[in-house]
Amino acid sequence: MVSTAERKEYPISMRLPEADVAMIDRAANLRGRSRTDFVRDAAVRAAEDVLMENRLIRMSPEGFAEFMEVLAAPAGPVPEMVELARRPAPWEAGYDAKR
C-alpha cells in the first residue's frame, strides 16, 4: 500500500550571476545563516511587502469620513521631534554627548 503524504516543501531553482551569489553568501554569513535560509527569508519578506501594499482595506462610510477628517486636519507638533530638532548636531560647537 502506497502512502501519499502531502508535500510540505517545494524546491525553487534559479540561475544567478557569480557576483550575485557572492553578495548573497557574504550577507548570509554576516547574519550567520545559510544561503538557503537567507534567500528564503528575503523572498518571503519581499512577498509579504507586496501583498500588504496591495491589501484591500474596507471600512464603513462613517469610518472613512473620520479617516479623511484626520488626514485633512492640520498637523500638530510632536514633542520628541521638536526636542530632537533643537539639539545641536554632534559637529556643532556646544554639543554635549551626555544629553
Can you give a write-up of this model?
With about 100 residues, the chain is mainly α. It has a domain at about 20-85. The chain contains 4 helices and no strands. It has helices at about 20-30, 35-55, 60-70, 80-85. Helix 1 (about 20-30) packs across helix 2. Belongs to the TacA antitoxin family. Keywords: DNA-binding, Repressor, Toxin-antitoxin system, Transcription, Transcription regulation. It holds the Pfam family TacA1. InterPro entries: Ribbon_hlx_hlx, TacA_1-like. One of its GO terms (molecular function) is DNA binding.
Strand content: under 5%
N to C succession of SSEs: HHHH
Shape descriptor: flat
Q: Compute the CA-based radius of gyration.
A: 25 Å
Number of helices: 4
Low-confidence runs: none
The span between the termini is 73 Å
Biggest beta-sheet profile: none
Number of strands: 0
Mean pLDDT: 90
Structural class: mainly alpha
Helicity range: 40-55%
Question: What are the main properties of this structure?
Answer:
single chain, 99 residues, mainly alpha
